[in-house]
Amino acid sequence: MTHPTDIRREPLSTALSLAASGIPVLPLRAGKVPFGNCRRCTDNACGGRPNMKTAGPCACPGPCHAWAAATTDPDVIQSGVWRHAWMRATAVAYHPGGAWLTVVDLDNADAIVWARENLPTTQTVPTTRGEHWIYQGPMRSVNAVRPGVDIKSTMAYARWLGPGTGTMTELPEVVRALALKEPAPARPAAVTVPALPGSGECRHRTPAFLERGIAMAEQRITEARSAIHATVYRTFLAVLSTHGECGCLTDAHIARLFIAAQAKGESARHCTDAWTNARTRLGL
Predict the structure, then answer these.
(1) Which of 60, 179, 186, 279 lies 20 to 30 Å from 13, alpha-carbon distance?
(2) Are strands 101-106 and 149-152 parallel, antiparallel or unpaired?
(3) Are 235 and 257 within 8 A, CB to CB?
(4) Gap between the Cα atoms of 88 and 163, Å rounded
(5) What's the rounded Cα separation, in Å, for the pair 94 and 66?
(6) What is the torsion angle, in degrees rounded to the nearest 10, for the CA atoms of residue 117, residue 121, residue 126 and residue 128?
(7) Per-residue pLDDT tens for 170-228?
(8) What percent of the chain has pLDDT over 90?
(9) Contact at 8 Å (CB) between 124 and 165?
(10) Which residue in 49, 149, 55 sits closest to 102, CA to CA?
C-alpha cells in the first residue's frame, strides 16, 4: 500500500492520493472536526450532533457525517460541496476500519512508554502530543482503554499525519483485549425505562435478551455462505425491527454487527448503507 509522503501538500491532493490507495478520507476543519458534507448538513443545519464527530440523525440520501462519509470515490471527493470543504480544510482524516486498519492513539509520553513495553512494534506516526501505532486489521473503536490510550478503527476517524516509519504488523490479540471491559454488575431481569407512547415497559434492556439478539445476528452474518449483501441487510433489518425504537442499541452493539459484516468482505460503506436503508424502511 502506498501513501503520500508529504503532509504539507494541499488537503485535496493528499486526500485523492490516499483514496487511490484504498483509504477512505474526509476533510477536517479547525479543531479536528468534520464538515457536514452535503448542502442539507452544512453548518449543522440538519440537526446532527453539534461537534459532528459521529454520524448525525440527518435524512440525507446517503451518510454525510464524519467516519460514515469517508470515501475513496474521487468523484465524490471532488464534488461541489466537498470541494468547498477542502478549500477550508485544515487537515485530512481517514476511516481506519474502512481501510482495514486499527490506530492505537497514544496521547502522551507515559502512554508511549507503556506501548513500547506491552505492544508489538508496528508502523508508527508522530502526533502533536504522542504517537499513532497502526496495525493491519479492524476492530471496534473504544476511547480511554487506559490512561492516554484510545483505539480508532471502525466507526471512527483519525487524522492523516503521514506514513510514519516502521513495518505495519497484524492486529495482535493484546490490542483487541484492550477493548474488552470488565463485565458490569448483574442487573435485574427486567428494567423499566422511559417508553415510547403506548409501548409499555421495554424488555429489550434485559441484558440477556439484548445480548442474545446481537450474538444471533453476528452468527447469522458469520455463517452466511452466499448472498452476503442480502444477508447483512436482512440481519440489520431484523435487529432494528426488534431493538430500533427503544433506544437500547449502543454504538458498541452496532460496531459488533459492522465488524461481523466486514469480516465477510463487506466494506464499511456497504455496512453503513445497509444500516441506513434498514432504518429508512422501518421509518426510524
Answers:
(1) 60
(2) antiparallel
(3) yes
(4) 23
(5) 9
(6) -40
(7) 999 999 999 886 544 444 333 333 333 334 444 555 566 777 778 888 888 888 877 78
(8) 33
(9) yes
(10) 149
